């Protein structure tokens, strides 16, 4: 295959794995120099929680008041700076270039709060934390590893499952990620939303997001954006919007896909691990795990 050797694809930084083709140690080294602005919109999600979907939704919500022409200008500004607004991606120069982006910046990250630049918490920037049930997240990540040339492939689901449970994947442990974010859950500048609630009622989800960030939109805006950000619509445009990553990023877009691949024992193991690590926390209650047993 056209894949690199697994040991060349990943690197470990402060005990957490990252893919070498999208993140670099020297960038993580200067991450703390990122300067948050009070009007930044920060979007957070463990990989495969639906980050790209949320990003698209929030961009549309934030930009609803711009004309087509103004939107183009904003997008071109990003392109010219070669800065996609992923906090931990790219070369170490991104934090300087991000200073040149016009407000309101939308910044996306997969990082836990203990790994984020301190200015994010010192500023008044609001943070939206996206969560997804662990089983669908695990399945989505499995296919992502196997479908992307820049991540190692797994010979079997069982082997992968063990790594997911032990947090030996890029961006670390799903469970640690949620546990760390749970510490901030009562902060008024933080809101959590789940993949499942966005699937169930995208318009209601978007209304919650808009009210949290203070975006004002009319009913027609919400229904227009819901159509534009449906799985089908985003998948159709994926090669245009996400290039070679399109196919792997927009895979199924459903709730409950874990049923196709989890064994009964793995289902029980996951339930136990979820209870042991997150049981009783507020963030766990956002996930409504019981519904997916
Ligand atoms: P599946 O692999 O289960 O299909 P991320 O963007 O964080 O990498 O998450 C990717 C997951 O979000 C994938 O899940 C993908 O299909 C799903 N997704 C992407 N766009 C979506 C949309 N518009 N609606 C629902 N799910 C979407």
UniProtKB/TrEMBL annotation:
- Source taxon at top rank: Eukaryota
Indicate yes or no for the key word Transferase.
Answer: yes
Q: Which InterPro entries does its entry note?
A: P-loop_NTPase, Sulfotransferase_dom
**Protein's recorded name:** Sulfotransferase
Enumerate the transmembrane spans.
none
Could you say which EC number(s) this protein's record lists? 2.8.2.-
Locate the Sulfotransferase domain: which residues? 39-281
What UniProt keywords apply to this chain's record, in alphabetical order?
Transferase
GO molecular function per UniProt:
sulfotransferase activity
Q: Which family does it belong to?
A: Belongs to the sulfotransferase 1 family.
Give the first-level EC class, as a single word: transferase
